[in-house]
Amino acid sequence: MKSSNYDAILFKQWLIERKNLAESSVYVYFRSIERFLARNPNLEDLDDYNNFLVDVSVKKRCSHYYSAIKAFIEFRIGDAALKARLYKGLIKPKERKDIVRERKHLDENKILEVINYLDSEKHKVVALIQSLTGVRAGDILRLKVGGIVPEVYNKQDVLRLNILGKGKKRNVVYLFDEVAQEIVMDYITSNKNYGEFYFIETGKMNGRQGNLESEDAMLKMNYQWYWADLKQAIQTAGIDKDDFATHDFRRCFGRRVWEKWKDIYKLQKALNHSDPKVTMRYLEQSGLDTADIHYEMQK
Asked: What is the pLDDT along the chain (299 residues), one digit of tens a residue?
């Protein structure tokens, strides 16, 4: 039984209709199977599934590939005996025993110091937006021209950012800070070299001229440049490079939201989570779900 690219599209629709998954998870499963099907596998051959799982197991986070393959077999294989044989023979990734490094929480002044140490003006703007809105770095990088709109809210000038986020999830955020608005608008008006995106360079790769093949490839390369700049900035600010990453702008924003309101619904909305379970997991992993208990007991 051979595969086709159409299988991935049907699989995505099946996930939406049959599985209780967050929108972002549907997107991750879909892209994982797209990658698997690009190999033109024989869908009845266990080795084709396992060879793929072995190849992607070098990644830091690979368990979702296994889960996506299992779901795809459930969707695509009708023969019960074959399905059971494939399930039983799948190579399950080893559980990671490593202790996850705890990221540092930086206050707003230290975050601004890190931003000021960034070398690229574009990266300073991206980091500033991240710190004020909690939006993922990749979502800001793929912000399309026309997606930043000046308007008035409550008799105050604001900038509205129309984000198409992870899993193609719409996310609208606002910049009220007047200094931030000025910095963002100065960047937009002074840079006329961008094409479809405000923050993605499409004309070079590794110093050589030439177009990148896809939006995903362009995003990946520009994210790597941003991350390299940030690593240098945090070291200059006296922070270990393993203690802060691009996603930590979002974590620090989320913590400020929680400290201000202690409201899981507001935190879910602020982080644009589809499922409150994801927000609850964030609180548990950060320890914020018990911070107020300890505060009340010790004050």
From this structure: 666 678 999 999 999 999 887 777 888 899 899 999 999 999 999 999 999 998 887 655 567 899 999 999 999 999 999 999 999 999 987 655 444 556 889 999 999 999 999 999 999 999 999 999 999 999 999 999 999 999 999 999 999 999 987 767 899 999 999 999 999 999 999 987 778 899 998 755 444 444 445 677 788 889 989 999 999 999 999 999 889 999 999 999 999 999 999 999 999 999 999 889 889 988 988 889 999 999 999 98
CATH 3.90.1200, applies to 5-89 = no
* Entry pTM: 0.72
Could you give the 3-state DSSP secondary structure of residue 188?
helix
173 three-state secondary structure: strand
Q: What is the CATH number of domain 108-252?
A: 1.10.443.10
CA distance 78 to 33: 18
Structure tokens at 112: 């601004």
> Residue ranges per domain, the chain?
5-89, 108-252
Question: Residue 80 corresponds to which tokens in the numbers above?
Answer: 């019960």
